[in-house]
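Open question from group meeting: does this chain pack into something compact, or does most of it stay loose? Before anyone orders reagents, we agreed to write out a predicted structure and look at it together. Recording both the input and the output here so the notebook holds the full record.
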Amino acid sequence: MELETLSLSGFATKHGWHKSRSSQLKKEGRLILDSSGKVLVAESEALLFSTTDPTKAGVTERHQINRSQGMLSEALTAVSDEAADIIGNSSSQRRAAALADIAELDRDRQFGKVCDVEIVQSVLMENYTAIRQMAEQIPFEMKPLINAESFDLLQKKMRHLLETVSNTASTFADKLKNTEQ
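Structure tokens returned:
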């Protein structure tokens, strides 16, 4: 069985890095090379994984996002160029536009700008129910501490609060349903 090997630049390309990153890892002793100076891929990846500093995970994630955003930008440009070359072919233009839309949606998902409507609705309803149950108990927990007039006023205010929260939740749920369609 032959081990997979790559040049330093090939290893960098595989991981979306510049060649200088592979050279830096080589100097740090974090890449395993064969006798010809090529990177032993599986062994080097295992060594990198085992020597990764967990305190730098945020930096690593930010760099990955920036790299993927750059690749996405290049893909969108390529699709736009391809669409411009095929003038008059409406199906090609629609395809290019659809690919651009998909790429934009993927980018928005990656940055947390898009979420599943059903999850949002579920979380909203669960939290609303919990808040309503807690709010309904407040007047009764306070009853021994306040007079009857204050109790009635507190109960009235709590009902108004719950109605407002309910209306807000309903409006939000309606807006979510409209965005689904």
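Observations to bring back to the group:
The longest helix spans residues 148-180.
Residues 29 and 128 are 55 Å apart (CA to CA).
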